[in-house]
Amino acid sequence: MSCCDLASAGQLGKAGIMASDCEPALNQAEGRNPTLERYLGALREAKNDSEQFAALLLVTKAVKAGDIDAKTRRRIFDAVGFTFPNRLLTSKEAPDGCPDHVLRALGVALLACFCSDPELAAHPQVLNKIPILSTFLTARGDPDDAARRSMIDDTYQCLTAVAGTPRGPRHLIAGGTVSALCQAYLGHGYGFDQALALLVGLLAAAETQCWKEAEPDLLAVLRGLSEDFQKAEDASKFELCQLLPLFLPPTTVPSECLRDLQAGLARILGSKLSSWQRNPALKLAARLAHACGSDWIPVGSSGSKFLALLVNLACVEVRLALEETGTEVKEDVVTACYALMELGIQECTRCEQSLLKEPQKVQLVSIMKEAIGAVIHYLQQVGPEKQKEPFVFASVRILGAWLAEETSSLRKEVCQLLPFLVRYAKTLYEEAEEANDLSQQVATLAISPTTPGPTWPGDALRLLLPGWCHLTVEDGPREILIKEGAPSLLCKYFLQQWELTSPGHDTSVLPDSVEIGLQTCCHIFLNLVVTAPGLIKRDACFTSLMNTLMTSLPALVQQQGRLLLAANVATLGLLMARLLSTSPALQGTPASRGFFAAAILFLSQSHVARATPGSDQAVLALSPDYEGIWADLQELWFLGMQAFTGCVPLLPWLAPAALRSRWPQELLQLLGSVSPNSVKPEMVAAYQGVLVELARANRLCREAMRLQAGEETASHYRMAALEQCLSEP
């Protein structure tokens, strides 16, 4: 067969087997075409390549373009199989006078025809061709060659068909298709728009795997798209707004891309737009805010104006959507606006290096207050049947972010909503798996078909904890929370979250939000201990909480990097022990002794004697472990010292236990080794409180203190109460 005959056989796009003509159609008649069946038989019986080519040519003549249905395609496959296309695809030499790609073009055309059948598209013989097909996308050749263009179209049809199968994206990524698609798009040759479309589909289906396999190439595409976005002056910039979120990496976005994206968004959002033009821009901005915080916004006047514009537009959109009853809410757009409002809240509460000036902060807080009022109005209308909807979760999230920073405004409206928030949090807590799923749905709803960078908290309670911490200080909101059963719910939540940090669980893989949530729970409980002590005494859930604190602290104080959580647990446990001192669990049981030993360890290791150059006397200084976090720790430490002091007279066994730990002796030794001028008055008062109560409670403690020069030390530090106590028999 000559090259011309091969070319004729290869022009399947004009005959009937080219991929573009392989779509299913109605049969001409219920019965099979006898002529076609005869030619298919010849195809099956062909003994060499020339006979197969000739038979294929006869088949294409017997079947007019567009007349091939699924059954006919399958019969052609049964006749041809994969062996013949495999040979065509791997052939390195073409017949004399033929272009070198003519055989491969015919092989790809056959595969594209077969891939129209989803079952064949997932066949191993198709999947193992992915690396070969991927190379065709970037192969060099005459851009005007019609046969080469047909081969590229067929290649994209094969790859797209594979991508549509359940495991297809994974196979394409492993076969190097993502890099090939990126290079094809960046080369802007024939079919580059198809490369972009297929890339979008793969990123939507398997974002993490795509970035893992082809990060440099995908970043190159992002740079190209960002540059195009920054320069675009026509409607293409709105289309790019929809594409760009998919190409933002799960790690750091290149700074040059951030500059281009911010500049493009500033130009779009600074113009008068219709909603269909503005909404994709708001969603892109929300995606950037969620992934990068405010790092993508330039410092200076232009950046502060842009941020103020973003937050302003977001608040207006939220009010328009939620205040008008009966209006259909565009939930994806409003949720994106929530993300921009959250960015505004963060910047308005930032004390150092904020992008906003003080007048801008005041103005934005006022605007956001109105938008939060609309969110509260919306949540007040939510019935039980809607509580599991992602948009409700997103609305609770932004309200939680607001309440974490501001509870004085909208107080009446917040108090009216508190019963709903407690019920909502309880519902999702009791169905924790659905809460995690809701979190992912919110991320999808707000940003893009893929999961955004940082994970959103997976439960409603964690969103509300900071706000509830503020509200439990106030009489009115606290009474509502207690009435609605929030303390009992918080105890259950704390115990459930604590299980995640217990032995047997890998705490290194836990998100920081778990430990932060535990600390915030402790702060809420501390507020309740101080403001509602009767609740602690009568509610059985706090007895369970106390038992958990006692059994957990000994191991916790030994763990590196968890000192702040240990401080919260120790201080809370000491304060609760004063209220529950008559409980059998605190009467010198092994658990109670272990807890107080651990609490003494936390309190006693905070300060050390440190030598100073040029001086014979050391000074009192913070221990290395405490020094870096003392700003967050000191209030808990002083409160813990005070609580321990209050426990000594209530628990007769505690003073002897403290003596056996040698804390009072070592404390006096520490004070005797440092300059009194280096010990601040509040430290002197805290130390004296503990020493006095231990001395009063136990004769052996007094004797041990005298042996440690306690009276002399008390005199040096002007601890009159301790000096008097030690002077007594």
Automatic annotation (TrEMBL):
Q: Which GO terms describe its biological process?
A: neuron projection development; regulation of neuronal synaptic plasticity
Q: Name one Pfam family in it.
A: Neurochondrin
The residues that cross the membrane are: none
Gene Ontology CC annotation, any one: dendrite
Superkingdom assignment: Eukaryota
Q: SUPFAM superfamilies from the xrefs? A: ARM repeat
Give the matching PANTHER family: NEUROCHONDRIN (PTHR13109)
| Family that this chain belongs to | Belongs to the neurochondrin family.
Question: How is this protein named in the record?
Answer: Neurochondrin
**From which source organism is this entry?**
Castor canadensis (American beaver)
